[in-house]
Design brief:
single chain, 66 residues, alpha+beta, 3 strands
């Protein structure tokens, strides 16, 4: 197993990478990718994949009310 890193996520963070998204959501990498993709928050810049935090937050709020 790999050591889980500690990532600082503050209110000014606009986008996060996959590892930071998983840390932010307290879940595994695969689940984080699924949530980010389902939310429509995925941004591709070259080979790099980022996720927009505000979209993830709105998506989680919408599914939490179900």
């Amino acid at each position: 197993m790999h050591k889980t890193g500690k990532y600082a996520i503050n209110n000014n963070t606009i986008t996060v990478d996959t590892n930071r998204l998983a840390q932010m959501l307290s879940c595994g990498r695969g689940t984080a990718v699924k949530i980010g993709t389902d939310a429509g928050a995925k941004i591709k810049i070259g080979k790099r994949t980022l996720y927009k935090v505000s979209i993830i937050e709105k998506y989680l709020e919408s599914i939490a009310g179900k």
